[in-house]
């Protein structure tokens, strides 16, 4: 029986919700890691939420006790958190140490060994996370992940008092989430039928796209009926548009993503990606202007154009655009900070009224945790880099993170926008005048608590105990970290990263390394301050014009389109068009009600296919490596 707290909130942590979380952890973490390795732009958390609730609603029905809204809330919230952590970052770091990019920018041999194993490490040649050289990097990774999570809870506790209890902001997106949870928990037959049929389609497609190449590759045969991650049509347009690129991504999850994303956002993404990969890439090559225009050579495919044009032209542009997209909401809503400070004053000196939320921590415990997290992070920074000033660590952890919490949570509560300051860590290091190398690898965590404030609001709307949510998370979190490390190491043992088997790493890691190296070394050839400034001002001008005209075109979508390969964006766009066609056929209200279930079913089916392929490949590899 579920426990009811004194505030009227009901615990959602039962043996059934706990079983669902354990099931989701074991089933979906390997699938989420695999998706991150082979494709770009897929958010796998949605599949775990819808699929787990739907599956366990059925299990509960057969047991004779329907799943409660509070149990469904715990499953829904925690499921999305389980697949966020990606230990593949540890392998990326090791590759970065050995990469030609680190050599090119003069970083080889200068990267701290607490961040990644040293150059020439046996761990890199053995392809194993469970080597002595990984002991310190993994320990720091686990400590900072855990401490960052605790910091997020602390700031979310503060934000809960300010924005949910005192100011009582609307949080429009959380209203939608709470309603979705209630509908799913009530178990509609139509939802189940749609989920089952679309999961079947996703599974069949996933078997062809991923399972067959996985198992065949492990057995020593190269079989691939559909290219991963995309069909590349660049060679067909090269003759009349040199420098431009085009392709179609093949992962069905991207098509499903287009179903659920707002049309205005997808349209903005399409505008941004065409502007970069078709118009401006071609124009700069045609006019022979910018380093990219001179560097381009015929025969480059989509992947090479994406990587090389980023280095020689778009890195500085995207940095400037990111700053503009990050600051634009503050300029459009200048009273955000003032209102937040007023809410704090009302909480301190205002009249006491009946609470609508569950109190998470007493003020003394909250203050102790806040100070403890900030001091521990600062101690870690200074221990890892003795040249990093103590005052800089304290300034980052207290006033800066507090300001970020006030701004980001209010954005979420008023407008439903998830906003983060772009390149905050890099900008902060430049601001304090840091001149070393080691500090650029410090784990300066961004933990203002936006996500967990959102979770607390959903709990408030569904009358789910906050404490049961926190207990459930801290039960599942360590298991998710452990399984993540195990599966990541297993995938690495199967094939090198980057490699053709993991195309997302082959495409995305060099680009990420370019940005990282550019910030550290800032060579004038690639880190163009004037270009950053001009792109910042141009994007701000576009944003102000769009805001004044009320066109509703999303700046975030434009930036996403510019920074994402055109093949990925095009498939999302095609999914959005298919969704709109279905809506016209079946009715907008019907489609809006079930589109998330359609997307979740496709993702669930493909996720199951990936699990089958992964298990088969690991078994075959194990047999091949037997010592007899």
- Beta-strand proportion: under 5%
Number of helices: 25
Q: What gyration radius follows from the Cα positions, in whole Å?
A: 25 Å
Low-confidence stretches: none
> What are the secondary-structure elements, in order, as H or E?
HHHHHHHHHEHEHHHHHHHHHHHHHHH
What gross morphology would you assign? globular
- The percent range for helix content is over 70%
Q: How would a crystallographer describe the biggest sheet? A: 2 strands, antiparallel
| Mean of all residue-level pLDDT scores | 82
Q: Going across the major beta sheet, what is the strand order?
A: 1-2
Distance from N terminus to C terminus (CA atoms, Å) equals 54 Å
> Which structural class matches the secondary elements?
mainly alpha
List strands and helices in order, with pairings.
Elements (H helix, E strand, L loop, with lengths): L14 H24 L6 H19 L5 H14 L5 H11 L1 H5 L17 H5 L8 H32 L5 H14 L3 H30 L11 E3 L1 H4 L9 E3 L2 H9 L2 H25 L2 H6 L6 H31 L3 H14 L13 H22 L5 H26 L8 H8 L18 H13 L3 H29 L8 H19 L7 H21 L5 H9 L2 H21 L1 H37 L4
Antiparallel strand pairs: 1-2
Helix pairs in contact: 1-2, 1-3, 1-20, 1-25, 2-3, 2-25, 3-8, 3-19, 3-20, 7-15, 7-16, 7-17, 7-19, 8-19, 9-25, 11-24, 11-25, 12-23, 12-24, 14-21, 14-22, 14-23, 15-17, 16-17, 24-25
Question: Can you put this structure into words, describing what you see?
Answer:
The structure is a single chain. The chain has 628 residues and is an all-alpha fold. Helices cover 71% and strands 1% of the residues. It has helices at residues 15-38, 45-63, 69-82, 88-98, 100-104, 122-126, 135-166, 172-185, 189-218, 234-237, 252-260, 263-287, 290-295, 302-332, 336-349, 363-384, 390-415, 424-431, 450-462, 466-494, 503-521, 529-549, 555-563, 566-586, 588-624, and strands at 230-232, 247-249. Strands 1-2 form a two-stranded antiparallel ribbon.
């Amino acid at each position: 029986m579920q426990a009811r707290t004194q505030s009227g909130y009901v615990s959602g942590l039962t043996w059934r919700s706990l079983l669902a979380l354990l099931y989701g952890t074991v089933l979906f973490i390997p699938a989420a890691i695999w998706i991150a390795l082979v494709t770009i732009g897929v958010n796998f958390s949605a599949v775990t939420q819808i699929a787990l609730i739907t599956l366990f609603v059925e299990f509960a029905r057969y047991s004779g006790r329907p799943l409660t809204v509070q149990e469904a809330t715990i499953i829904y919230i925690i499921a999305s958190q389980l697949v966020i952590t990606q230990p593949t970052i540890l392998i990326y770091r090791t590759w970065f140490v050995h990469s030609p990019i680190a050599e090119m920018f003069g970083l080889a041999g200068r990267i701290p060994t607490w961040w990644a194993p040293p150059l020439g490490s046996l761990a890199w040649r053995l392809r194993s996370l469970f080597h002595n050289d990984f002991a310190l990097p993994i320990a720091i990774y686990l400590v900072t992940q855990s401490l960052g999570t605790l910091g997020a809870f602390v700031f979310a506790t503060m934000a809960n008092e300010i924005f949910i209890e005192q100011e009582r902001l609307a949080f429009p997106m959380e209203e939608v989430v709470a309603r979705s949870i209630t509908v799913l928990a009530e178990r509609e037959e139509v939802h189940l039928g749609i989920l089952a049929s679309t999961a079947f389609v996703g599974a069949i497609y996933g078997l062809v796209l991923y399972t067959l190449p996985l198992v065949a590759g492990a057995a020593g045969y190269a079989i691939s009926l559909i290219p991963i991650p995309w069909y590349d049509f660049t060679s067909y347009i090269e003759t009349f548009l040199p420098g431009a690129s085009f392709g179609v991504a093949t992962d069905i999850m991207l098509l499903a993503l287009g179903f659920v994303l707002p049309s205005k956002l997808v349209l903005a993404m399409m505008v941004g990606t065409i502007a970069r990969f078709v118009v401006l890439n071609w124009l700069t090559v045609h006019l022979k202007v910018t380093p990219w225009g001179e560097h381009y050579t015929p025969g480059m495919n989509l992947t090479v154009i994406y990587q090389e044009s980023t280095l020689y032209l778009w890195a500085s542009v995207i940095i400037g655009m990111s700053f503009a997209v990050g600051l634009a909401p503050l300029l459009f809503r200048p009273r955000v900070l003032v209102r937040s400070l007023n809410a704090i004053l009302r909480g301190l000196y205002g009249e006491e009224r009946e609470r609508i939320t569950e109190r998470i921590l007493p003020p003394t415990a909250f203050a102790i945790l806040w100070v403890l997290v900030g001091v521990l992070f600062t101690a870690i920074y200074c221990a890892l880099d003795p040249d990093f000033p103590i005052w800089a660590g304290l300034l980052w952890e207290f006033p800066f993170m507090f300001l970020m919490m006030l701004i980001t949570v209010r954005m979420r509560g008023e407008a439903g926008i998830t906003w983060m300051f772009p390149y905050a860590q890099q900008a902060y290091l430049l601001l304090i005048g840091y001149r070393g190398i080691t500090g650029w690898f410090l784990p300066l965590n961004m933990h203002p608590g936006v996500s967990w404030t959102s979770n607390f609001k959903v709990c408030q709307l569904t009358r789910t105990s906050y404490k049961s949510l926190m207990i459930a998370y801290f039960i599942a979190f360590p298991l998710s970290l452990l399984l993540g490390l195990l599966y990541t190491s297993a995938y690495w043992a199967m094939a090198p990263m980057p490699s053709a088997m993991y195309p997302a790493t082959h495409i995305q890691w060099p680009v990420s390394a370019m940005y990282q190296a550019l910030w550290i070394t800032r060579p004038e050839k690639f880190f163009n301050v004037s270009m950053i400034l001009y792109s910042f001002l141009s994007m701000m001008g576009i944003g102000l014009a769009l805001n004044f005209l009320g066109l509703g075109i999303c700046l975030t979508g434009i930036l996403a389109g510019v920074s994402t390969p055109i093949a990925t964006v095009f498939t999302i766009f095609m999914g959005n068009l298919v969704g709109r066609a279905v809506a016209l056929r079946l009715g907008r209200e019907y489609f809006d009600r079930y589109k998330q279930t359609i997307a979740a079913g496709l993702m669930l089916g493909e996720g199951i296919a990936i699990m089958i392929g992964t298990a088969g490949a690991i078994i075959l590899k194990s047999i091949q490596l037997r010592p007899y």
